[in-house]
Every structure is written in C-alpha cells, then in structure tokens.
Amino acid sequence: MSKLFFILPILFLFIACEKVVNSGNFPIYSKYPTQLNTEWEYNTIMLFEYYDSTGNIDSSSVMDLGHTICKITNINDSIGNFSKLILFEEYDVATPTNIHKTWYVNADSGLYSIAYSNPGSSQIVIPKQHLKSFEYFIQTVKSIGVAPAFYFGLSNSNQVSDSIQFYTYPRKVLVYPLKIGSRWIELIEPFYRERIVRTTEIINCNGKDYNTYKIESEGDFKVIFNDYINLTDGLIKREILIDSVAIISPISPDPQGYYKFGSISNLVRVLKPER
C-alpha cells in the first residue's frame, strides 16, 4: 500500500504537467493514431537459426504464433484519480478472453504508458539470454504484445488478471515530433532502456507500402527491439532479435547448443471507424 501512495503523487504531478503542454497547437496527425474503435490485426512468426560447432548456421525453423488483435476501446477512461486516458486492449485470436490492457496519455511531448493489467505476470521481467528451457523461452516471447508499449510476461499460471499496475515513472513510448535522430529514455525501472529513431523505411505488408520510422532500442541487455511506426496507421512491424542464445537442458547447466532468434510481427489489417 505504501508503494501505491508513493506512485500516485508522481502520476498526479505528471498528468498535471502534460495538461500544460497539451496546448492544442501540436497537430493530431503528427501523433500516434488513437481514434476510438481503431483495430489492428497482426501475425507473428518466430525464426530460429541454429549454429553448429564451428559457429556457422546449419539449420533453421519457423514457428507461426498466430494472430493478435489490438483495439482502442476507450479514449476518455479513468483509473482512480486519473482521467482522459486512452485504453488499448490486446488479445490473441486463439484466446480472446485473455485480454491485456494498457492506459496511455497522448501528450504534445510524446506517447506515455501510465498503467497496465494482465501482461502475463504481476511484474515486467528482464529478458534473459540463458533460459530454463526452450519451451520457457517460447512462452516468454509469446507474451510480448503488439500494443505501442510492448511488455514481457511469464506463463499464464502467473497472471494477475484483475490487478492494475502503475509504472513508477510514466513510460515514454514515443517522443514528438518523430524525426530521425530523436532519442529518449523509455524505461528506468525495472531496467534502463533508451530508444532512438534511426531512419525511415518503406515496409510492405500484404501488398501495401507504408512509410515508417524505424525506432531501435539501446539498453543493458543484448536484445534488439525494432518498431516500424507510421503516423497514419500506427505500428506496422515489430522485430525482436537475439543472437547466440544458449539452449539449456533441464537436467544440466551446460549449453546444449546456440541459436539466433527473431520474432517478427507484421500488420495484417487495420480497421478505422468512419468519421
């Protein structure tokens, strides 16, 4: 309870400051799209490339994780004393009742994540290069979502589905205006991570070309996150890349081999309500 009383004043101060910078002079089309009832569908695959004893890739495999829906269900939501929050809901098509929620403020200075619920565990966890098992690794990666502020989770048995968790410090997902070279601190706790707009790229999904900003991550661990953002249609593509991952047997701490991993989520469709 003491932690909650510590967090609430910080969030209250943050929301008050953001009201000041939301002057209305920053054009809405230069922000991440947050129109009510906008719905995105993504397909995610995992690519595994296995190293042989000489350090060369000798085989590979692909796993299709299926489709995920992400939808804006409220643009004036309230949590406790906080109001005018944007609510994103996300779920796998195969498990539509298992819904992850994230609340945002889309301010003139950037897109901020304030709170979340049911991310797969009660705490966000740091991704590890040495994992307990191959199956555990797959489950961890499957818990990474496609909402703007992606998350990490553990197994479904550790979920706290009804609990709303506040970030100790609001998580800065995007900075405005988006432009090449922009850099900002996204996270301080539970680990430190910066993000940078590296370049612009044209990404083709389902036969349609999207002009995107490529946003990379820089942090304290060797996991690469690349987001490709279009300011009209939102997140177009997400990559999670890890090299030299050790395969650990449940009965031995010694690596059984190494592989290169990539998780790729591509936009399948975006549905926007008629204006």
From TrEMBL:
Source organism (scientific name): Ignavibacterium album
Designated name of the protein: Lipoprotein
